Amino acid sequence: MKRGSLRENTLAAVLIAMTVALSILVVIPIPATKGMVTLCEVGIYTSAILYGGRMGFLVGGASGFLIDILTGYPVWCLFSLVIHGTQGLAVGYFTPQNNKSIKTMIVPLLIGSVIMVVGYFFATALLFGWPAGLASIFSNIIQVGFGMVVTLSIVGSLAKLKPNLV
């Protein structure tokens, strides 16, 4: 796909919209940090694995920003843009493009997950103090863990249905 093409821009917009919708439909509140657990990682990880780091960065950053705006957490917008964008970039960058087996996707997904957990730890600690930052770690681990499992299921199913896509 040519960079900046209509097809690539449309694909990015659709993936961002799907990630935002998925994240808003399934929300588990976290009272300790006044945050939430969402399925944002599923859209970010799937986009990054299928289309590379650039698409992972676009989908991660834009969807994270939009989710926070739409759900009433504007204080998190810039943090989400940077954290989720970097997360998608890392997953796409470290995923081998010629061999996308489940085994080769685990390390990139773990790298992206660490970026998210550590990023939100520091963001939460900056906004609400170190105890809140520590409290956010467990829920973020649950979020990225669930996102990894669902992503591996989706990408594995896509590989069986249409091998040239993955």
Rounded average pLDDT: 90
Percentage of residues in strands: under 5%
Low-confidence stretches: none
Task: Please report the total strand number as a whole number.
Answer: 2
Number of H- or I-type helical stretches: 6
Summarize the structure.
This protein has 166 residues and is mainly alpha-helical.
Write the layout of secondary structure elements.
Blueprint: H1 6-25, E1 28-30, E2 35-37, H2 40-51, H3 53-70, H4 77-94, H5 102-128, H6 130-161
Antiparallel strand pairs: 1-2
Helix pairs in contact: 1-2, 1-3, 2-3, 2-4, 2-6, 3-4, 4-5, 5-6
Q: What tags apply to this protein structure?
A:
166 residues, mainly alpha, two-stranded antiparallel sheet, 6 helices, 77% helix
